[in-house]
Amino acid sequence: MNSVHFSPGTAVITRISDKQWHALDDDRVVGRGDVSRRPDGRIFLSIDSWHGAVFDQLAATMLTTLPAPLYTVVDEADLDLTASWQRAGFTTRRREWEYLVPTDPLVTGLDSALSPEGVHIVPMGKAQEGPLREVYDAIRAEVDASVGWDSMPAEVLVRPDGTVPVDPAKYAVAAQFDRYIGLVRVVRVTRLPRIGLLAVRADQHRRGIARALLAHVLEALRRAGIETASAEVNESNTAAVALFDSVGAERVSSNLELVRH
User: Fold this and answer.
1) I need a labelling partner for 80 at 20 to 30 A (CA). Which of 40, 121, 165, 207 fits?
2) Where do the TM regions start and end (predicted)?
3) Are both 2-95 and 97-254 of the same fold?
4) CA 99 → CA 214, 229, 240, distances in Å?
5) Is residue 157 exposed (0-12), middle (13-18) or buried (19+ Cβ within 10 Å)?
6) Does position 86 have pLDDT exceeding 90, yes or no?
7) CATH topology (fold) of 2-95
8) Tell me: the pLDDT tens digits for 31-47?
9) Domain ranges (residues) in the chain
């Protein structure tokens, strides 16, 4: 273990593993720092401490050890935590809105949302894995070439071989003839399902396909007895923001992604 000692009366920062640091005061843990690597390779930090001085010590130690750029995510309403990261040299990279989305079509106005002519929705669990993989990879490449895939929610993890698992049970897709042209991913790990990804191929934009996909999954959730879903939308994704605002989704919080170069 590697320890970094500060001036008398302050905590002792100890690296207990490759991914974790502890701040100790008389052998009592008074703060913890953790690091994780996202599927896209970016390094994210988190620090848990009751005292600002201990936070600063942990941050200073971690920053001298880890390669830049470094990232973290904070609840925008947590002003103290945001200020702590700003003291460490982090600045805002993006804002992500957290929505609560009603599933009742009479509330959302999606009872009349029809698929465009020639397009049909394939329900969750019914998509073929090969074409699903193809549309996922195509959309990812299009996003990477524009705003960058790291602007999307971190909704999936990579396998050890570097591939991304695409589970048909979690996706509904929009199909045109024998080609998938859009998808929506719904995760039900808690009692509040999360819409983690809603995307359409670039050459199919402005046809109402995303709206039809959203209408489909919300109706499926309503039939399952679920009244509300959650969704995360990047503030800069004006089309997605407009879509969720238009269906009566409620903005309940916002997260900031901060970066230190």
Assistant:
1) 40
2) none
3) yes
4) 14, 8, 11
5) exposed
6) yes
7) Aminopeptidase (3.40.630)
8) 999 999 876 788 999 99
9) 2-95, 97-254
